[in-house]
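agent: user wants the structure for NADH:flavin oxidoreductase/NADH oxidase from Candidatus Methanoperedens nitratireducens. delegating to structure tool.
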Amino acid sequence: MGLNSVFKPLDIGNISLPNRVVFPAFQTNLASSDGTVTERLMNMYGKLAAGGSGMIIAGCIAISDEGAPQTNVLKINHDMHIAPLKELFRLIGENGAVPAAQLIHAGRQTLSMMTGHKLVAPSAIPCPVMKEIPVELDKDGIERIQDDFVAASVRVKKAGAELIELHGAFGYLIGGFLSPYSNKRTDKYGKDRALFFTEIIEKVKEKVEDVPLSCRISGDEFVEGGLTLDETRKIAQRLEEAGADVISVAAGTYASMAHMAPTQDMGEGVHVHLAKGIQEAVDVPVMCAGNIRSLEFADKIISEKKADLVAICRPQLADPSFVKKSASKQPFNECTDCGTCIYFLRGEKSVTCPQNPEL
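agent: tool returned. relaying tokens verbatim.
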């Protein structure tokens, strides 16, 4: 079987991806305690870039201390983070991939003991997993966080990110605003749950208009009262109208964790239908994720026009050369679906992989 579709270049705004494979943003907890790039992160991303992916999205990068999802995540809330990220993005580019950055505010899906700040959310409803009651954001708080996303975008552009992704999936803060599951507000941000996100996109575009924006959403949250494809198709259209250049489709929240990182027994490409549904509603490229474990299957997705880009994470963690080895029919270290890389569910401090001891 050929791989013509997955290795076809794709232009997004002013950037050109050499192929359709993306290493998506992934929580590693390998940054320093102040959110700075470490040698271990440089090594990981450098090998991934050399391994053949068309784009590497570094992240999740917290826009503030308050919004950090873990203890040792990358941050971009101070100018001191620009230079280390510049080295990281330079390394990714030199090894053949387009460097990108994902920006996040965790909202209610973190803990104040980790951030040193009270949790904030669209409504004062605790995440059923984290269980801590957040403070409902007022107008000033909303504008402050939107400004934090803008400032973070300016900084990652200065650092050399060629694409910026805004994390609106998985029930984090932006996703929390999008969903009736977590947003019970009665003001304009409750009556129009996409407004918080569209305002961020518009404000970011004003400052970094020449950098393409990807917006990641959960196509279906798989929780009672949460987002489903019928609504996320409409949300995706709103995001495109606001200025999104890519819609990245994931699934789930912390309360439906299995859909955030689906296991093999859930089926191959378990969420491709969500990407296809959203692709039919927008005119910008759509990225899909979820149990895409071979280039042959990735090529099938692209050739059948079910998505324009494929996010492949765990197979590339298991073997950073997964893409190049697959293309040349060489054996590679296969992901065994052991779940070790989802370290926070196992009580571990950071990501590891038994298939890739150098990670």
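agent: one observation worth passing along. The longest strand covers residues 55-62.
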